[in-house]
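Could someone model glutamine with this protein?
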Amino acid sequence: MSAAFMGVAQAARLVAQGQASSVELTQDFLSRAQAHQSLGAFLHLDAELALAQAKAADARRAAGGAASLNGVPIAHKDIFVTQDAPTTAGSKMLQGYRSPFDATVVARLKAAGAVSLGKLNCDEFAMGSANENSAYFPAKNPWDVQRVPGGSSGGSAVAVAAGLVAGCTGTDTGGSIRQPASFTGITGIKPTYGVCSRYGMIAFASSLDQAGPMARSAEDCALMLSAMAGFDELDSTSAQRPAADYVAQMTATREGASATHPLKGLRIGLPREFFPAALAADVNGAVRTALAELEKLGATLVDVSLPRTELSIPVYYIIAPAEASSNLSRFDGVKFGHRAQQYGDLLDMYKKTRAEGFGAEVKRRIMIGAYVLSHGYYDAYYLQAQKLRRMIADDFQQCFTQCDVIAGPVAPTVAWKLGQGSDDPLQAYLADIFTLPASLAGLPGMSVPAGLGDQGMPVGLQLIGNYFGEGTLLHTAHALQQATDFHLKTPEGVR
Ligand code: GLN
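Reply:
Sure, complex below.
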């Protein structure tokens, strides 16, 4: 049996029913990962450890005590600390770093029985939109290896899109789950801020960072999220809510719905600011096609407005660097990772260590962050941005009086060519326009495949829900995926 492009739900079922062993599936995914190394998805692949975990999963199944993801081969974005594998956050600063503990999300997926193949490439400290800010090597889009897979969870997106794992973890601060999912034709969900624990997730912008699953379908995401989510006393911003069964929420029948119209009564709001004249025609076309499918399933489309959409770019690019400059001060050559070899006094050691350890984008953000937080500029920039952040969140609440879910594109274009964005950071920042608003508001957002655009590149439909509305998003995406095959398309080059 080939595990190629097998999803989380199918792998879990096959192992649970004894139709495949976890060792068999793991072996198959490992050989695919090895055969497609040139895609740059993995920063660390550990066949020996993965097979040992798979063996243990098969033993648990034989003993009859297996959990929901028993034996399912996954991998983690290298921003999650792991005890049994190195963690780099895509940075030279943490080269060779070993964590003494597992991130909560990692521990929970392990407890659910998942097998980890290793650690996935990402932009340095999750800063970027193309995975080209990885200090190691870029990841390549399996739909066209001349193009980027998106970022910062680029390795995660590539691993799923190329069928190297059944599903994986990602993180999203301003779009890093949704945008790479969109660029590679997979399904990903960023939950409401606080749903997944940030404990052991290397911090970029603490008030925005959120973990989530990236996989082949809404069902796969629901299964993984059920294992990942839930209150964690080790994270002070973790939401104090009872554990949720996202698979049950995904399949629950809506009031008044029927088999042919599972989305009857669902009001989908289309913010006019998400469909500007500058939106690429192929993206607009694919998104409209997916929306028409949702209408066929019983949903109604309503016009809404998020008037401060454009402001989310300057607001995010003040708040995120401000928090980053503070979070990254811990990488000083004393406590973690890299330390310069040659230095004079302590200050010189700090300077040389940080000059050597951080890449250009990270340095840029530290400088912006330190600037906007400095005396005299704090009120003009940081405080102003915080006030606008609240207004952006309020705009969403206004929309949710008129609709249940908000929909639009994930990104203004399909994936661009490698190297195209690297010399103009501002251009890359502007492309985050549709993912930043939900991040700033702390709302859940999802990317669902919506077909192919120009040059056969994937396009994602973004769904945004109200706080803790993950179930509604998964339900909507699942209904779409039951009726269409957008999510089943796979890239030719990696069969
Ligand atoms: N592209 C955005 C940035 O560079 C978002 C990154 C993320 O979500 N981690 O900050």
